[in-house]
Amino acid sequence: MLTVLDGPMGTELEARGVDTAGRAWSAQALERAPEVVAAIHADYARAGATVHTANTFRTQPRSLGPGFATLARRAVELARGAVPAGHRVAGSVAPLEDCYSPERSPPEPDAEHAALIEVLAEAGVDLLLVETFPHVPEALAAVRRAVATGLPVWLSLTPGFRADLLGPEALYAGACAARDLGAAAVLVNCAPASQTLAYVRALRAVGLPFGAYANGGDAEEGLGWGAPGAPAAYLAWARRWRDAGATLIGGCCGTSPAVIEALASGLSANG
Length: 271
Fold this sequence. Notes:
By secondary structure, the chain is α/β, with parallel strands linked by helices. The chain contains eleven helices and eight strands.
């Protein structure tokens, strides 16, 4: 059965005029524009998504200091309050440093990831989404801590915004290691939609539910960033992921509620 995921929070905040500059990025909106965060969640629900990622990508001690826990809880509350009962809310656990700079991954990330993961579990998320990791060892450290909560854990690795940080074989090996730690699903995210199929195919042999949520790539591809034909163009790639066996499909940077609506309506059994 196909599950439609939501789309990005950060680039959608920017598209709606919310300032996300700075280390805290999208987390700033939890204080400055919580009503916009809630509206984005609601729009993705109306579009057809049934798994919604709380805005906790940057609610980390490293980014926010001691106030991180308050904002992480607020993010979960906003998501839960904006979507229908029965929809799942995922707690996002992201790299401690830049998600496109694996060389900056800290050598001992466990305690920092555990701090956020514990808050998210206590806040009542339905699953933990360890996402957008280009550095496999740090991703596995987060998965290990997340699995210890007893919640379902999904791991999503990123090959990078231009698919130049991880190859399909390395992504597959990382996904297998996460499976062995107890992950419930594996995904690829934030690679250009036009370059994601090879990674989806690599995940088929892991033996877990798998999927993808890609970015819009370069603007001239017309797959995101507000391009008029983006929903249909992105859907065409998503159908290839579905045909390769993916059952978890959504959108990442540069996509939008309109793209998610196209997925929800166009990825039916006969679509």
